[in-house]
Amino acid sequence: MNADRRFLLLLVCVLTAVLALGTVTDRGAEGGSGDTRDRESAPEPPPAAARASAATGGSEPAYGTLLLRRLLSTSLRDRFPELAAAVAYRPLLENSQIVSYYGNPYTADMGILGATDLETVAGLLEEHAARYDRLNGARTVIPALHLVYAVAQHHPTDNGLYLQYVDDTDVRRLLALTAERGLLLFLDLQIGLSTAEAELKKVLPYLRYPHVHLAIDPEFAVASPEVPGLDLGSLRAADINRVQAALQELVERERLPPKLLIVHQFTDSMLPDGEAIQRYPDVELIIDMDGFGPADIKRVKYQRYASRPYASHAAIKLFFQHDPDLMSEEDVLSLEPWPAVIIYQ
Predict the structure, then answer these.
(1) Whether this model's pTM surpasses 0.70
(2) Rounded-to-integer distance, Cα 261 and Cα 213, Å
């Protein structure tokens, strides 16, 4: 019996136990003994329900109501809180590969994501991911959209950060689209004259969604009088560690699956003290070999940066318009180390 079948069998067993517990408890309540201890020891509502009850000043729902909510919930952790404490989420990239389309919906210059309407982009992505899936054997391929949320500018902006942002309405369109089609969504931060920690706070509400993950780009992280896009930026290990710590806290507080963090790199100076980057149990750190150019040079740079000891996984970015000899899917899958994430811009 494989792992997936064992997991489904375990869920069925827990569901049966929960239903039995509900029946026994309801019968005990019908006995009319007046003793409330059994009712008071019933499982607590999920955190979200508890917060909503506290916010509205409502009383705790009856056990039968809680049971119904749990059974109707789309969250396994809400449906089976007893199981959640015993069963940890499996790492997303344990036996999977991500193929993503990168860009910004306001311009085609930044990548394929802005080349046409989002539904068409999603369809093209799914077709491309299917090609990888056919070549990947037992590994699952997960399609993703990679949105550059904070876009660095080479001229001053009203916020003083040399950054422009994707509007909340457009982010939520992508949230809905990706959730509906079973895609992942990466939010990319280009930092500008801000800090990685400050920019992360702006996207934390979106990162509460289980399918939403983070990327940060040291290339555009500069300090005045430098200008992003004109001067090559960098981040320190302390910046990356603070971001990871915040993601770890979010995962624990919201009971989310582990988060993926992509960090782009194509020169040593972009992460000058990378060896000081730490590991966090619920954050999978991915180093993406960024930059366009001939395939033979990309292979050399990929091996150099993707295999850094501070990377949990490797990624490579490919450019439809700027790579003179775009690597084929077979070429990409032959890379060492094996690329867990493949980004197309």
Answers:
(1) yes
(2) 7
Predicted pLDDT of residue 4: 54
- Across the chain, where does the E strand assignment appear? 96-103, 140-152, 163-165, 184-189, 212-216, 259-265, 283-289, 313-318, 339-344
Quick one: tokens of 88?
Answer: 């940890």
Residue 100 CB partners (closer than 8 Å, separation 6+): 125, 143, 144, 145, 146, 184, 186, 341, 342, 343, 344
**Is the C-alpha dihedral spanning 242, 268, 305, 145 positive or negative?**
positive
How far apart CA 214 and CA 212 sit, in angstroms, is 7
How many Å apart are CA 214 and CA 147, to the nearest integer?
10
What mean pLDDT do residues 152-161 have? 95
pLDDT for res 97 = 97
How many Cβ atoms are within 10 Å of 297's Cβ, its own excluded? 11
- Is pLDDT of 237 > 70? yes
Q: At what angle do helices 237-254 and 196-207 cross, to 10 degrees?
A: 20
Q: Which residues on adjacent β-strands are paired with residue 100?
A: 144, 343
Q: Nearest 5 degrees, angle CA 109-CA 113-CA 116?
A: 85
Cis status of the peptide bond prior to 225, with omega within 30 of 0: yes
Lowest mean pLDDT across 21-25, 132-136, 157-161, 232-236: 21-25
The torsion angle over the Cα atoms of residues 125, 130, 132 and 134, rounded to 10 degrees, is -170
Q: What is the pLDDT of residue 91?
A: 79
User: Which residues make beta-bridge pairs with 188?
Assistant: 148, 215
CATH topology (fold) of 96-344? TIM Barrel (3.20.20)
Give the separation between CA 166 and CA 151, rounded to whole angstroms: 8
Q: Where are the domains of the chain?
A: 3-84, 96-344
